[in-house]
């Protein structure tokens, strides 16, 4: 894109200019927007919570409904997209989104389930090395998952769970806080698990440097990419973490409760000595239907699959991933940086709003309203103005412009609305 953040100016015309120059602008037409009573589309800044529906999802699901009615069980092999190997149709596009090799990723289950499955393999505590290092204020599901894994292995979260907290007087973590904690406790730590983008603050952490540090101390390291997949340019293979998990209903627009994704680094792809919970869909697909009682795992991430997957949900996600492939993460993140930079530029002119999100981030900005004690009034007001964002009591808004379907004018309108409200 031609415009640099240093060239931002105020005024609505500038937003219109940015929209005119936007090479991804046409992708907006591929999505369905929720509408107000007057039939105007909402300004939708909630793609970090639930992404919008790509128009072609419907026909992709209808194809499978039709093949089911036409073929019954024979559809496993005869459907237009045979169900037996349907998940493979998503692999290439997904691997491009997270920067992995094809055999390092698979779509299966949902995020929290996958996190447990990965910990079965990569959290192997011993008497002297049983700790898990995690960011303080992690998403609740991740906290429950690590606590329950620690207990499952007979240890106590009070002593085996280390939560990295911001230094006194600081409101967010720094990468150094993690590096120092890993340096200090790494020798007793079995697993480092970090959300690469914090769900509340939108802050992003470097997968590469944290991975190098964890590995230098002999720890395994995994990432929760719930807010990273489809948001940041990821290079999982090169950066080298042992595993990663994510959901696909946020930035990836896979639909409510959509399937999760898993990355297992190539270095583990043929390690069949790793403990794992097994199911028939992880078994060598050539001999799967011989119904042997001896589990023979597939090579790579597919070897962690348990069940035959839900085809309608895969169809929805397939439709969405094709849009990402067409637009490319490179272009998506370029627009994202510009858009969120523009939002930051506008909001930084409002003295009554504090931007909590540090500079290293993806699409999301978290904003604190200094004069507000409760978000309820704001929520109602913004909805009346046709804006959907996410509210966290007492006074925080999370706004995430998704580059595939948001336009710069949306940002301008949102800023107008909150600027007005912040003063009260
Ligand atoms: C959204 C989110 C989840 C949700 O987990 P599900 O198993 O998909 O319900 C978990 N962890 C993080 C960090 C999230 O942002």
Could you list some keywords that capture this structure?
single chain, 424 residues, alpha/beta, Aspartate Aminotransferase, domain 1, Aspartate Aminotransferase, domain 2, 2 domains, seven-stranded mixed β-sheet, four-stranded antiparallel β-sheet, 14 helices, globular, binds pyridoxal-5'-phosphate
**CATH superfamily membership of the largest domain:** Type I PLP-dependent aspartate aminotransferase-like (Major domain)
Give me the count of strands: 15
- Bound compounds: pyridoxal-5'-phosphate
Which architecture of the largest domain would the CATH scheme give at its second level?
A: 3-Layer(aba) Sandwich
Short description:
Helices cover 36% and strands 13% of the residues. The protein is of the alpha/beta class and 424 residues long. The chain has two domains: 123 residues, Aspartate Aminotransferase, domain 1; 264 residues, Aspartate Aminotransferase, domain 2 (3-Layer(aba) Sandwich).
Task: Produce the secondary structure layout.
Blueprint: H1 12-20, E1 31-32, E2 43-44, E3 53-54, H2 57-71, H3 75-78, H4 88-98, E4 105-107, H5 111-122, E5 131-135, H6 140-152, H7 157-160, E6 161-164, H8 175-185, E7 189-195, H9 207-216, E8 220-224, H10 236-239, E9 243-246, E10 261-264, H11 311-327, H12 329-347, E11 353-355, E12 365-369, H13 376-384, E13 387-388, E14 390-392, E15 396-399, H14 408-422
Parallel strand pairs: 2-13, 5-6, 5-7, 7-8, 8-9
Antiparallel strand pairs: 1-3, 4-10, 9-10, 11-12, 12-15, 14-15
Helix pairs in contact: 1-14, 2-11, 4-11, 5-6, 12-14
Bound molecules: pyridoxal-5'-phosphate.
